[in-house]
């Protein structure tokens, strides 16, 4: 029997960006919040030895231990799903701050088109533009409604940026100016202008200058140290939950964080949750934490998985298209891009920051005419200078052997002479892309793993090809030699090479209980005191990194939870 | 020449950087830098003092047998040979690096999902075998010797460099047919770990004296690049290691 603890106002499952934002907002208003985090405590001092490519980038120091829990994957329903035994396609966060600690900080806002994608696509191109099986739907919220929450996330994190000429309207400028530019970025800027495109500095959560946010948190400026993506920031310059929202929640005296606490079930009776059951992984003890409100902030996979394991909500059935939990899993089409070799000049590629870059949105969303194209949406196209580390960066021109004397010479020569322009393609949902529980493989507690059924579609291939060509034009205009590689071919979705940790969907938001799992406050239609927060709420994935939008939705959800807690119950409208 | 770098030549020393950059903020420093960095005492260091060269105690075996080591050491050197640019994998200690990696959690696949059932699966589903990395190396090394023997009646490390290349190529392209492991997957692992051994921080036993980094003009563990990030010229810097950070 699980040991039962006294009831609290709110229990938050997982303390990353989602959990941290919810905790800070609710405790400010006087609610008592318990945060259950399966991983360990983290602090800036931990990163004294952080400039270690092997340990952090290649041995995944900060990521979830896959021996305890992983996902399974298959391309389609008639293939046997098999476990992701080691890391590849995406990396799963764990520990205080979650992936928010080792992210890059590229902090975009999704486009107005995204939130009304179905209506706007039909309005401009007619219904037949949407291919069979593509299950895009409006999000039940508009960009304008979400705008104030984008702003709150950006002010809290201290996003450095400049206005995107093709983005949604902003109520306020970014809180700090854009980051410094590098020769490569300036070349991208000039080339895209020459091509009559609209470059802008990538919005960055790496602080461009010392900044004090509206909560009173002061942080230092980014030092362009080049160990950012997959690493914690030793300066606190990268916005992460541990140096922003979590201290504010703690300061309130109303936030209790319990690390090493692995949540396994949401307990419920009728259409309400009563709390959660978790295992203290240091002792193995099962503990019940009753709460008035349960907030799931355990990332895309565990948000779906915990609901399915707990038999809460209606599981999605790909055969009928009915049900909602696990629906509209989407990803990112990241493999279309172009690489340029610059024989006559060297770049300081080792220097950089996770979100140091310049990009264009001319081929993103519906910013361009798709009438004669066999796909919808597009990609943010960017050059980024995140810091090239020596083990992982050994690009050589096509035709060079991959080892031996020639390889050594070419990989050394081109280490400082390669630039690439990449496209971050949007990912549309399809009826047969979904999450459910794996029938065979289990985690360390014996609970079923989550199973991904997903592959790239013709939509994705067309999009990747189109964007790769655009990237090619840009890299040429930047003056790359004749050694240019344009990666037009997408191939099948492969779980082994790293692409991005931009998984979305499974507990999507929307305007109707029939087609979505949560409303525009991320409150579950089927369990009014359960809020499911994260990119799990995205009805599709845009041509951007997800966290700007995910952060905005977290602030929105926090407001909903406060409303719900004050009103004493019912679905929010 | 290798252990001593003039710290003044470095763009910023950690401590002076922290003091000068306004990182010590007034008020609430919740998000600020690690206080421990500031509090740390400078190790006493006499000007002009040259540390006496010491034996490299790291160069002993934790996992490989001497025979296995010889095979791997020779193979690494063919993958990343010594040339006019500088040392090869052998002089950089890549095979010691691999040995030490296999001895630890990585060699045991300690953080990988290794529960059954095991099925072959599609290529896009990734590695689905039950063998651990150290076992794959055991088999792969043995097979390299077997194959070398079948061709030239000698062990891999006894072959000429050209003959060694032929053997490696045969593994790379799966011309060698193995039953328990994939020859090409083993080769890919050998290649990847060789590059790790050449370019990982010297703390792991490879990249001796940071010479791998020097060849590649990678400055290692620097605290900050604010001063060079915007400049057009290439910035050539003497690399720093994590050891410098710990003892600096
Ligand atoms: C290397 C990398 C780079 C990235 N770069 C960018 C970028 O530049 N821009 C961008 O927008 N996004 C980026 N992302 C994605 C970004 O990190 C995530 O979108 C964001 O951090 C998600 O926040 P979250 O709170 O939803 O989930 P997480 O950060 O994953 O937090 C979830 C937390 O829940 C905990 N948890 C899970 N299950 C349980 C359970 N059963 N019980 C208890 N606790 C549990 C986890 O341990 C974790 O701490 C990147 C991700 C990675 C890995
Ligand atoms: S690049 Fe900047 S934000 Fe990223 S870890 Fe280094 S100092 Fe921190």
From TrEMBL, chain A:
The keyword Amino-acid biosynthesis does not apply. GO terms for molecular function: oxidoreductase activity, acting on CH-OH group of donors. Residues 437-553 form the Glucose-methanol-choline oxidoreductase C-terminal domain. The keyword Flavoprotein applies. Keywords: FAD, Flavoprotein, Oxidoreductase. It holds the Pfam family GMC_oxred_C. Belongs to the GMC oxidoreductase family. This is GMC family oxidoreductase. It comes from Brevibacillus invocatus. The lineage of its organism: Bacteria, Bacillati, Bacillota, Bacilli, Bacillales.
Automatic annotation (TrEMBL), chain B:
NCBIfam families: TAT_signal_seq. Keywords: Membrane, Transmembrane, Transmembrane helix. The chain crosses the membrane at residues 21-39. It comes from Brevibacillus invocatus. The keyword Transmembrane applies. InterPro entries: Gluconate_2DH_su3 (IPR027056), TAT_signal (IPR006311), TAT_signal_bac_arc (IPR019546). This is Gluconate 2-dehydrogenase subunit 3 family protein.
């Amino acid at each position: 029997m699980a040991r039962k603890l006294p009831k609290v106002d709110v229990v938050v499952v997982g303390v990353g960006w989602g959990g941290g934002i919810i905790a800070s907002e609710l405790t400010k208003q006087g609610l008592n919040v318990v945060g259950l985090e399966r991983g360990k405590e983290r602090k800036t001092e931990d990163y004294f030895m952080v400039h270690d490519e092997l340990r952090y980038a290649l041995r995944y120091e900060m990521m979830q231990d896959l021996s305890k829990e992983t996902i399974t994957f298959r391309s389609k329903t008639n293939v046997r799903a098999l476990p992701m035994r080691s890391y590849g396609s995406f990396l799963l966060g764990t520990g205080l701050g979650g992936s928010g600690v080792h992210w890059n900080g590229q902090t975009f806002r999704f486009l107005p088109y995204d939130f009304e994608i179905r209506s706007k696509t039909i309005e401009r191109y007619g219904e037949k533009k949407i291919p069979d099986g593509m299950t895009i739907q409006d999000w039940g919220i508009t960009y304008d409604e979400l705008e104030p929450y984008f702003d709150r996330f950006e002010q809290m994190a201290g996003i450095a940026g400049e206005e995107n000429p093709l983005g949604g309207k902003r109520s306020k400028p970014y809180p700090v100016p854009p980051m410094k530019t590098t020769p490569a970025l300036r070349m991208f800027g000039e080339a895209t202008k020459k091509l009559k495109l609209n470059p802008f500095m990538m919005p960055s959560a790496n602080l461009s200058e010392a900044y004090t946010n509206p909560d009173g948190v002061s942080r230092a400026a980014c030092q362009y140290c080049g160990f950012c993506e997959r690493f914690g920031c030793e300066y606190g310059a990268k916005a992460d939950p541990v140096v922003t929202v979590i201290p504010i929640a703690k300061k309130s005296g109303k936030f209790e964080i319990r690390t090493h606490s692995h949540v396994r079930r949401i307990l419920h009776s009728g259409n309400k949750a009563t709390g959660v059951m978790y295992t203290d992984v240091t002792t193995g003890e099962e503990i019940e934490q009753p709460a008035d409100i349960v907030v799931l902030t355990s990332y895309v996979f565990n948000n779906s998985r915990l609901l399915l394991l707990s038999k809460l909500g209606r599981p999605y059935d790909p055969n009928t298209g009915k049900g909602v939990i696990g629906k509209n899993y989407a990803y990112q089409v990241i493999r279309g891009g172009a690489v340029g070799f610059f024989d006559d000049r060297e770049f300081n590629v080792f220097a950089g920051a996770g979100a140091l870059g310049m990009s264009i949105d001319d081929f993103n969303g519906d910013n361009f005419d798709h009438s004669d194209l066999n796909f919808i949406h597009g990609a943010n196209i960017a050059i980024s200078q995140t810091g090239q580390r020596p083990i992982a960066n050994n690009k050589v021109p096509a035709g060079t052997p991959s080892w031996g004397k020639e390889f050594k010479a070419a990989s050394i020569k081109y280490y400082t002479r390669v630039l690439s322009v990449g496209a971050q393609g949007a990912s549309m949902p399809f009826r047969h892309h979904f999450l459910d529980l794996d029938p065979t493989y289990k985690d360390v507690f014996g609970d079923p793993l989550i199973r991904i059924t997903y592959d790239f579609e013709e939509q994705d291939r067309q999009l990747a090809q189109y964007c790769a060509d655009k990237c090619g034009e840009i890299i040429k205009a930047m003056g790359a030699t004749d050694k240019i590689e344009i990666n037009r071919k997408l191939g099948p979705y492969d779980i082994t090479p790293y692409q991005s940790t931009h998984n979305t969907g499974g507990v999507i938001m929307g305007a109707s209980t029939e087609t979505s799992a949560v409303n525009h406050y991320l409150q579950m239609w089927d369990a009014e005191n359960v809020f499911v927060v994260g990119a799990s709420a995205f009805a599709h994935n845009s041509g951007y990194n997800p966290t700007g939008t995910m952060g905005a939705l977290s602030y929105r959800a926090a407001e909903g939870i406060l409303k719900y807690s004050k009103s004493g119950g019912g679905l929010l409208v | 020449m290798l252990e001593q770098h003039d710290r003044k030549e470095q763009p910023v020393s950690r401590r002076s950087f922290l003091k000068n950059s306004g990182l010590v903020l007034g008020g609430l420093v919740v998000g600020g830098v690690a206080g421990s960095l500031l509090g740390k005492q400078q190790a006493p260091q006499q000007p002009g003092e040259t540390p006496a060269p010491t034996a490299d105690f790291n160069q002993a075996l934790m996992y490989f047998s001497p025979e296995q080591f010889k095979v791997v050491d020779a193979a690494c050197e063919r993958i990343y040979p010594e040339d006019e640019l500088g040392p090869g994998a052998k002089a950089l200690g890549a095979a010691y690096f691999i040995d030490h990696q296999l001895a630890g959690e990585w060699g045991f696949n300690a953080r990988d999902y290794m529960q059954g059932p095991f099925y072959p699966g599609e290529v896009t589903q990734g590695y689905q075998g039950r063998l651990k990395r150290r076992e794959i190396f055991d088999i792969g090394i043995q097979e390299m010797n077997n194959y070398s023997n079948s061709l030239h009646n000698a062990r891999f490390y006894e072959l000429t460099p050209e003959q060694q290349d032929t053997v490696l190529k045969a593994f790379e392209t799966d011309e060698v047919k193995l039953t328990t492991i994939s020859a090409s997957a083993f080769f890919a692992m050998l290649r990847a770990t060789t590059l790790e051994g050449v370019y990982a921080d010297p703390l792991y036993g490879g990249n001796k004296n940071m010479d791998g980094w020097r060849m590649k003009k990678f400055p290692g563990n620097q605290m900050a690049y604010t001063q060079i990030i915007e400049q057009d010229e290439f910035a050539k810097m003497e690399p720093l290691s994590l050891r410098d950070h710990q003892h600096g």
